[in-house]
């Protein structure tokens, strides 16, 4: 019996690998074809097109307002020009180095494989500065939103609400609940990938006790590019951009000095980065399904390693197939955003009709309200691009005993495997890991929001009493 099961399992793996190879070869060709389709439509509707990452990396980055600066030794750096300074950007090489059937056969992207984005000193001459100024000036001629992005009132609320107030132009949307009196403690909530602050405000906020609501100020942020926050088409949505926006429009704007953080999935990476930048301010970290994939020592391409862990190019299980589509195919994912996000009002209507309005749609709203540019860059630059930094972040938090660390994970999570949380605990031994049976990536909160709210209160209160 055991031998039969072994043979059956091996046969299933072979079938999965064979079907996956054929399927992704076809998808490689489809994505290559869609590249020309979108360029043609962009040129027709916008009188211009933006180079994509399946073409020359240099062209894609410089046309988006960035430029590659070569250094001695053949290394390259990516810089951008702001109004006051040149700034080095943290760009994941998985954006422009994703081997595929088309790229290997045509050799169109082989010269991009050696591009690196290491920090260091560099020199930029005045000619490059003038060229960057010109490119950044031309960026503003692109329509906001683009033709393939949704232009409904909800998705573009950041444009209309900020146009009338120069003081808040470009500010993140913060869903907040504040006590009417006293000096409350602050809690910052950070959502995960293609989600929004509704993930917290519709689940945790209503279920906190009256005592907690009188003691804590709740600040749930829509990350740059998601929900009702700005979705600038020229942004590359790097880690530094996300952090600077949170610092400016959450911490500084709301005068947050000392705070707790509750973060889900991709938001856990931003939470760890904030804890490292503000070690004396963060009282506790509550991380839900943190995407931490330890990179083996000696691995020459950590970002590529993590991308293959997140998106293994397999058709089974279905979640692996969905993740592979999101990570590997720039144009297929743009097509999906065109069909789903741009028409989200129709899908929400059909969902309410089919379920007779018995299903709460706040998760759908968070899922739909983003642009392809925001999702594509955030996925690569945060999940994959921080592969070489996560270990140092966790080590820094480990050395800060004043920060309490609690980790939640659903045992049935098919998006982020539960092993990721145990790996975090290996780096931070004092971290408390709680794994819940029969819960997945979403139901770790949704469906048990009352219990989760009570658990959060215990974490915050124990931290306060300890201090």
Automatic annotation (TrEMBL):
Domain AB hydrolase-1: 187-444
Residue spans crossing the bilayer: none
Pfam families with a match to the protein in the record: Abhydrolase_1
The protein's name in its UniProt record: AB hydrolase-1 domain-containing protein
């Amino acid at each position: 019996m055991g031998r039969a099961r072994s043979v059956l399992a091996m046969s299933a793996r072979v079938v999965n690998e064979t079907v996956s190879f054929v399927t992704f070869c076809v998808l490689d060709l489809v994505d290559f074809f869609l590249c020309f389709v979108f360029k043609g439509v962009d040129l027709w509707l916008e009188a211009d097109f933006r180079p994509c990452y399946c073409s020359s990396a240099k062209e894609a980055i410089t046309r988006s307002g960035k430029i590659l600066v070569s250094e001695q030794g053949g290394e390259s750096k990516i810089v951008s020009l702001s109004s006051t300074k040149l700034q080095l950007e943290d760009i994941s090489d998985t954006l422009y180095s994703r081997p595929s059937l088309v790229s290997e056969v045509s050799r169109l992207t082989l010269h991009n494989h050696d591009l690196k984005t290491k920090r260091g000193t560099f020199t930029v001459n005045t000619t490059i500065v003038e060229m960057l100024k010109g490119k950044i000036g031309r960026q503003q001629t692109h329509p906001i939103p683009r033709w393939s992005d949704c232009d409904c009132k909800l998705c573009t609320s950041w444009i209309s609400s900020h146009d009338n107030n120069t003081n808040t132009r470009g500010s993140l949307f913060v869903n907040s609940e504040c006590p009417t009196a006293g000096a409350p403690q602050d809690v910052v909530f950070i959502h995960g990938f293609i989600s929004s602050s509704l993930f917290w405000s519709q689940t945790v906020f209503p279920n906190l006790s009256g005592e907690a609501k009188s003691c804590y100020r709740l600040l749930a942020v829509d990350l740059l590019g998601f929900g009702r926050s700005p979705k600038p088409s020229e942004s590359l949505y790097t880690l530094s951009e996300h952090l600077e926006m949170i610092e400016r429009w959450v911490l500084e704007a709301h005068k947050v000095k000392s705070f707790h953080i509750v973060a889900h999935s991709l938001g856990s990476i931003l939470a760890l980065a904030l804890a490292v930048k503000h070690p004396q301010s963060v009282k506790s970290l509550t991380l839900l399904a943190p995407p931490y994939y330890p990179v083996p020592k000696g691995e020459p391409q950590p970002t590529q390693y993590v991308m293959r862990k997140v998106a293994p190019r397999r058709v089974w299980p279905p979640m692996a197939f969905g993740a592979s589509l999101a990570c590997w195919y720039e144009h297929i994912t743009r097509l999906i955003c065109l069909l789903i996000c741009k028409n989200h009002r129709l899908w929400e209507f059909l969902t309410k009709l089919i379920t007779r309005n018995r299903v709460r749609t706040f998760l759908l709203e968070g899922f739909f309200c983003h642009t392809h540019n925001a999702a594509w860059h955030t996925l690569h630059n945060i999940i994959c691009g921080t592969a070489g930094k996560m270990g140092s972040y966790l080590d820094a938090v480990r050395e800060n005993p004043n920060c309490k660390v609690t980790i939640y994970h659903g045992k049935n999570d098919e998006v982020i495997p539960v092993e990721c949380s145990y790996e975090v605990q290996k780096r931070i031994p004092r971290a408390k890991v709680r794994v819940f049976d029969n819960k997945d990536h979403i139901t770790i909160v949704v469906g048990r929001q009352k219990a989760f709210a009570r658990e959060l209160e215990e974490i915050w209160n124990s931290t306060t009493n300890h201090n």
